[in-house]
């Protein structure tokens, strides 16, 4: 998009505000159904920000993979759950919650400092000399693939491992809750049988 700089920054600010509010809503809302639909808003806003930044291929991949697949998976997983938690249920804050909050805040601060201290002019996909000579730069998708498999290979693989660990952790937590629920059900059924006799 060829927009003036002030319009460009205003659009990105609105998109970033929507991403922030949607992300906070996912975490803060007690109703599981509402929390399941909000990532769709966040993923859509992220893909719109890619469009504003002239990364059309990444925006299309974001829309197809995250909005079209991941969010549908989350919503269908929520529809299988028993009952959504009501919005007036109290949240019990324990020491683990505060430790997690501190760790997430520290990680977020570290990432913000690293992003602000990085010299982004040194990291670019298009060689500036090609533009000065008058040659046309290469295909953005090919350049993106080349950069992902050369310069950014280690962070790309670490991110995939992180996502795999998060998926295994989510499955483990879900199984533990299911086992706990089944154990409580068997205890209550045995009590009912003993009281019946």
From TrEMBL:
Q: How does it sit in the membrane?
A: Multi-pass membrane protein
Kindly give the Pfam families that the UniProt entry links to this protein.
Oxidored_q3 (PF00499)
Q: What is its main location?
A: plastid
Q: Which top-level group of life is the source organism from?
A: Eukaryota
Keyword flag Transport: yes
Which Gene3D superfamilies does the record match to this protein? NADH-ubiquinone/plastoquinone oxidoreductase chain 6, subunit NuoJ
Q: What EC number(s) does its UniProt record assign?
A: 7.1.1.-
Which subcellular locations apply to this protein? Answer: Plastid, Chloroplast thylakoid membrane
What InterPro entries does the annotation carry?
NAD(P)H-Q_Oxidoreduct_6, NADH_UbQ/plastoQ_OxRdtase_su6, Nuo/plastoQ_OxRdtase_6_NuoJ
Q: Does the record's keyword annotation contain Cell inner membrane?
A: no
Which Gene Ontology molecular function entries are recorded, alphabetically?
NADH dehydrogenase (ubiquinone) activity; quinone binding
Give the reaction(s) catalysed. Answer: a plastoquinone + NADH + (n+1) H(+)(in) = a plastoquinol + NAD(+) + n H(+)(out); a plastoquinone + NADPH + (n+1) H(+)(in) = a plastoquinol + NADP(+) + n H(+)(out)
| Top EC class for this record | translocase
Q: What keywords is this UniProt entry annotated with?
A: Chloroplast, Membrane, NAD, NADP, Plastid, Plastoquinone, Quinone, Thylakoid, Translocase, Transmembrane, Transmembrane helix, Transport
Membrane spanning residue stretches: 12-37, 57-81, 93-115, 152-174
**Signal peptide interval:** none
Q: Can you supply one Gene Ontology CC term for this chain's record? A: chloroplast thylakoid membrane
Record function comment: NDH shuttles electrons from NAD(P)H:plastoquinone, via FMN and iron-sulfur (Fe-S) centers, to quinones in the photosynthetic chain and possibly in a chloroplast respiratory chain. The immediate electron acceptor for the enzyme in this species is believed to be plastoquinone. Couples the redox reaction to proton translocation, and thus conserves the redox energy in a proton gradient.
User: Which family does this protein fall into?
Assistant: Belongs to the complex I subunit 6 family.
Please give the subunit comment from the record. NDH is composed of at least 16 different subunits, 5 of which are encoded in the nucleus.
Q: What name appears for this protein in its UniProt entry? A: NAD(P)H-quinone oxidoreductase subunit 6, chloroplastic
* Species of provenance: Cibotium barometz (Scythian lamb)
């Amino acid at each position: 998009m060829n927009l003036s700089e002030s319009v460009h920054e205003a659009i990105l600010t609105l998109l970033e505000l929507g991403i922030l509010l949607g992300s906070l809503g996912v975490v803060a809302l007690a109703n599981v159904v509402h929390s399941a639909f909000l990532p769709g808003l966040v993923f859509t806003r992220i893909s719109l920000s890619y469009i504003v930044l002239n990364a059309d291929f990444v925006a299309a991949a974001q829309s197809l993979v995250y909005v079209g697949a991941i969010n549908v998976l989350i919503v269908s997983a929520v529809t299988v759950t028993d009952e959504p938690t009501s919005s007036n249920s109290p949240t019990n804050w324990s020491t683990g919650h505060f430790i997690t909050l501190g760790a997430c805040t520290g990680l977020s601060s570290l990432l913000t400092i690293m992003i602000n201290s990085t010299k982004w002019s040194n990291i670019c996909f298009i060689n500036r000399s090609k533009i000065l000579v008058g040659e046309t730069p290469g295909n953005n998708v090919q350049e993106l693939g080349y950069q992902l498999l050369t310069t950014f290979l280690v962070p790309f693989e670490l991110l995939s491992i992180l996502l795999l660990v998060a998926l295994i952790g989510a499955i483990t937590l879900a199984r533990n809750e299911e086992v706990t629920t089944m154990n409580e059900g068997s205890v209550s059924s045995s009590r009912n049988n003993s009281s019946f006799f």
